[in-house]
Design brief:
This protein is of the alpha+beta class. The chain is built from 4 helices and 10 strands; from the N terminus they run αββββαβββαββαβ. The chain has helices spanning 6-18, 90-101, 145-151, 181-185, and strands at 52-57, 65-68, 74-77, 80-84, 110-116, 124-129, 135-138, 165-170, 173-178, 201-204. Strands 7-6-10-8-9 form a 5-stranded mixed sheet, covered by helices on one side. It has a 3-stranded antiparallel sheet with strand order 2-1-5, covered by helices on one side. It starts with 5 loop residues before the first helix and ends in a 5-residue tail after the last strand.
C-alpha cells in the first residue's frame, strides 16, 4: 500500500461510519506476497524509516553497534555513511555493508538484525476508530485478527464491532472486506478470525445505538 492511498482509506472510513455498507467477508486464509520475496509463500521483513538495526562485524567490535534508520531511509554507521537501508531486508543490508567495509577490512563478515521498529509504510498495520488503543503496528508473520486485537487492547464500549472492516490493497487497488469483531471477541466465534496482511488498515466504527 503506497502512502497516496491513505486519503482514499480515510474517506472510506468516514463513509463506513456514516452508513451501513455491505462488503465481502475478509478471506480467512491469505498469504502475503511482498515484491522482494523469493517465493510466493515466503514473507520477508523489509526495513523502513524508524527501524533500528544491530550491525555485528565478526572480529571487529569497534565498527559494530546499533544504528537507527533515519526518516530519509538511510543509515549511518561506523565507517559507513548514508547507506540506503529502507526497502531492503536485513540480509541485503548486511551484504551492502560488507562491500563498503571491504575497503577497510579484509573479508568482512556482517550480520544485521532488527532491534526495533514498524517497517516501511506499505507493511505497517494500522488500526483506526473505536479500538482501545488505536495505533500503527509492525506486521508479524502469520498474524491474525485475534493477534491484532490483543495488541490494541480490544474495542471500546462504543464500538460497532460487526461493522468493522479491513482495507487492503490487492493488485494495486484498494479493497474493503467485512470482519465480525463482536462475534470474535464477545461470542468466541473462531470462524470470525481471519489473516492479517502487511499494509492492512482495520476500521472500527462507532455504534449508532
Amino acid at each position: 500500500m503506497k502512502r497516496h492511498f491513505l486519503p482514499v482509506l480515510l474517506a472510506a472510513f468516514l463513509t463506513a461510519c456514516a452508513s451501513d455498507p455491505l462488503y465481502p467477508p475478509a478471506p480467512v486464509k491469505a498469504t502475503p506476497v511482498p515484491a522482494k520475496a523469493t517465493a510466493p509463500s515466503e514473507w520477508l521483513y523489509i526495513l523502513g524509516p524508524g527501524d533500528s538495526v544491530n550491525v555485528f562485524v565478526w572480529g571487529n567490535p569497534e565498527v559494530s553497534g546499533s544504528f537507527p534508520i533515519r526518516p530519509d531511509g538511510k543509515v549511518t554507521m561506523n565507517l559507513v555513511e548514508d547507506l540506503q537501508a529502507s526497502g531492503r531486508t536485513p540480509t541485503q543490508l548486511a551484504r551492502e555493508v560488507e562491500k563498503i567495509l571491504a575497503r577497510y577490512i579484509q573479508d568482512p563478515v556482517v550480520t544485521v538484525t532488527v532491534a526495533g521498529g514498524v517497517g516501511p509504510y506499505d507493511q505497517q498495520i494500522r488500526v483506526l476508530g473505536q479500538a482501545a488503543k488505536p495505533q500503527t503496528l509492525s506486521y508479524r508473520e502469520h498474524m491474525s485478527l485475534v493477534d491484532l486485537m490483543i495488541m490494541v487492547g480490544g474495542v471500546t464500549d462504543f464500538a460497532d464491532g460487526n461493522r468493522a472492516s479491513i482495507l487492503r490493497v490487492v493488485d494495486g487497488k484498494p479493497q474493503q472486506y467485512a470482519v465480525r469483531l463482536d462475534d470474535l471477541l464477545k461470542e468466541g466465534d473462531i470462524s470470525a478470525n481471519v489473516d492479517i496482511l502487511p499494509g492492512d488498515v482495520l476500521l472500527i466504527p462507532e455504534s449508532w445505538f
